[in-house]
Amino acid sequence: MSPRWEPHPDIRRGRTVVYTLHAHLVFTPKYRRGVFTDELLRRCEEIMIEVCDSFGAELVEFNGEHDHVHLLVHYPPKVALSTLVNSLKGVSARLLRKEYSAHVRRYLWGGHFWSPSYFAASCGGAPLSIIKEYIENQKRPG
């Protein structure tokens, strides 16, 4: 008797797709100013959870320091990562500037909150060397 297969909790299913896509994102405030306090980081996390939810994504992990934040996001394949990033940065910038205007103005000016650039890395699953070996070992038809 074979053991019952238990699905991996990170594997999700859509109508025509089975997926597990994770991205590690890093955002920095404009000019890498040290704008974040513990309170601002907590609120930023709340905002980013809501934005992810609206995309059908999940904010798996969030943390940061005074001058940057890290996110681990599990997102569906129908979502372009750049679109998710733009929304995460846009919504959080608007709300953090509005809710903490006096504090934010001391560090940032000109209507900007985030630097226009960001870091993104795919992560999760098997190491690339294992996947490469698996693909190399697949038999070609004929």
Tally of distinct domains = 1
Instruction: State the shape.
Output: elongated
Model regions low in confidence, pLDDT < 50 over at least 5 residues: 1-6
What is the CATH domain class? Alpha Beta
* Helix proportion range: 25-40%
Instruction: Say what the CATH topology is.
Output: Alpha-Beta Plaits
Distance between the termini: 34 Å
List the secondary-structure elements in sequence, H or E: EEEHEEHHEH
Structural class: alpha+beta
Domain Transposase IS200-like: 18-138
Pfam families: Y1_Tnp (PF01797)
Protein name: IS200/IS605 family transposase
InterPro entries: Transposase_17 (IPR002686), Transposase_17_sf (IPR036515)
Give a concise summary.
This protein is of the alpha+beta class and about 140 residues long. The protein has helices at about 40-55, 80-100, 100-105, 130-135; strands at about 10-15, 20, 20-25, 60-65, 70-75, 120-125.
